[in-house]
Each structure stands twice: as C-alpha cells, then as structure tokens.
Amino acid sequence: MFYKKKSFKALVLFIAVVLCTFLFVPYGAFADSGEGLYLGGFPAGFALSTTKVEVVGICEVLTEKGTCSPAHDAGMQTGDVIEKINGEEVTKTSDINDIIAKDYKKYEVQILRGGERLFLPITPVKDLASGGKRIGVLVKDSINGVGTVTYIDKTAGKFASLGHPITDGSQVVKINGGTVYNSLIYDVKKGVRGTPGELRGAFESSVIGQAELNCSCGVYGKLADNFNCSKLVKVSKASIDEVSIGTAYIYSTVYGKEAEMYKISIAKVDKNNKDNRNFVIKVEDKRLIDKTGGIVQGMSGSPIVQNGKLVGAVTHVFINDPTRGYGIGIDKMMSSY
Questions:
Q1: Which of 35, 146, 175, 198 has its CA 20 to 30 A from that of 164?
Q2: Closest alpha carbon to 49 in 148, 136, 139
Q3: Catalytic positions, please?
Q4: What is the pTM of this model?
C-alpha cells in the first residue's frame, strides 16, 4: 500500500530539522558499495509528476475592472481534469499559462468529468498583478506519498519499490518523472479489522533516485549516482518456483529509518495470478502486530525473504484481517523495468 500524503508542504518544513544518515538493521554482513543486488526495506518519500492536471479549486482573478472567475463562468468544477485547451494537450500545470498566453481569438477547454468529456468555451482575463492572462483555476499535477523500497540494483543503477501501482482509484497514474527521497517514519496508525492502518512519514532532503515508471508491479527509477549502498546487504533472488509454503521474513521500517526483520508465513503461492497476487502471507511476529496490527499502508514494497533469498514484496492487506495480505513475486518486479 502506498500512503498518499495530505500535505507535502508541511513535510518540507520538517526537512530542515531532519538531516540524518540512513540506518539499517544489521541483519547480515555489511556489503561493499560495488555492483550487485541489495535488499531494501527502508522508507521512501515519493514526489511524482503526473500527466493529469486536475482542478482542485476555482478562484477569482483581479483585473482592472474588478474580480472575476472565467473558470467559474465557463462551468468548470473541482475534480475536473483539464485535457486540452484549443486542441493543445495539457499534461502539466505550466501548459495552461503557456497556451492561454497565445494570441487565440477564442478559447475552448476540453475537460474530463466523471468519465464524460466536455468542451467549455472560456475567456481568459488579464491579471492585474502579473500582467498575464489567467482563467482562475487552482490545479495539481503531482502526487506525494510514502512507501518502501524493495531492492537496489547497483549494477544497473536502478531501484524498485511498492510492488503495486499508484492509482487514481481506477487507473494506473501515468507519470512525467519525479523524485524519490529518503524518508523518516514518525508515527503509525494501527490497523484493525475493517480499517487499514498507515505509516506516517516525512521526506528528507537526500535523494534515492529519479522515478521513471509507475506500472502494475511498482514504481521504478534511476538510482542517484551518490547513493551509498555500503550499509545495505547484498542478496540473491529466488524465482517463484523455489518458494515454498512456510516460514519467511519481511524487512520493513515502522519507526524512524531502521529496517527490522519480522517473521511471517507464506500460506499460498499462485505463480500465474493475473493481479500479481502471487503470495498470501500472514504476519507471525508479535512485535510487528503489537506495533502496527499487521500490514499497514506504507509497508508496500517491503521485501519478502525466504531461505536467505529475495522472493517478493508485500503489496496489499486483507481489510478484515490486517495480519494477512498479498505479495508479488520478485521475478515479476524485476522483469518490469
């Protein structure tokens, strides 16, 4: 589960006081920072640019003749997705000002509202403060949240996380890139039957890498050149054919930045599951149950290890039993990027 943040700005304030180095539980011999596959389990803060520009508010524009709101007059509403203006695609917030700055005689906004595509005539006005043309909308083209890194592939210079896609509720969100930051978990809402819990985290200023892909198997990207693997543990992977019913472990961070190993059991293996729910897992570790109630939002991407090998990642929790959830096989994750 990917925990979406409600206020990224508030977390930016926290960055100034949280400038710590990454710490990892010493669950194996420290490896060097050369090439190889390294085990994750540490938290990450995602600040992703999307290709969807959504209206989050309608506002007034101050002109020489007083205030007005072209967006309101055109019938635009909060939740509308602006797809095009005068046939030109809008994939980021700056596209709106760039297009309406052009010398068109008439303007038409193409929006998507509740699955219906609408075409609204609109008349931009000159903003008294900036001198530019405005239509009076507040929009967003990004998504922010906290999740867990599954592995670092130092050889290829890339990372993988989450084990499932970030969605807008029904569809996988297309991204225009973004930055993935080191993160600190400062609180946890414990999961109970019927109500999933969640990890609450703050972004740090140091960077893990640049996000390049959000797909059905997770969020992937290019590893920062200066990312230090010296305190991570080298690991080999095992295919799903090597996974057996029985004891395994997950590595996850539920407070601070220090990953810990927690005992689980693999209750079911489904190699060909079309939804990438290749494992059913059950948390057996009392320490984790006491802290979180089991699996909570923000733990998605936590690596699953069996017999010392990386076999997959945690992806979902059972709503009616937070001690149980699903996992994706590592082969599917590694073949996606």
A1: 35
A2: 139
A3: 164, 285, 300
A4: 0.83
